[in-house]
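Field guide to reading this record: the first block holds the primary sequence, the second block holds the structure written as discrete tokens, and the final block holds curator observations. Each block starts with its own label. This record concerns DUF2922 domain-containing protein, catalogued under organism Metabacillus bambusae.

BLOCK 1 — SEQUENCE
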Amino acid sequence: MAKTLELQFLNTAGKTVKISVDSPVEPVDQTALNAAMDQILAANIFISTDGEFVSKKGARIIDRNVTEIVLG
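BLOCK 2 — STRUCTURE
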């Protein structure tokens, strides 16, 4: 079971852009997450193909289960 924290932002074109963080600490501290996303926006270091990150859209934990199947 692999978990990923997905941070969602809007860029200057109004499109959703995402940053993924593998193996996040749970439970997620919403205050710390909000502050981290604010710092990402303030630092202005990420630019997508459609422009800079301009606002927060949301965040979510994605839980992916993988089951290997043995053939033969």
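BLOCK 3 — OBSERVATIONS
Strands lie at 2-11, 16-22, 47-48, 51-64.
The longest helix spans residues 30-43.
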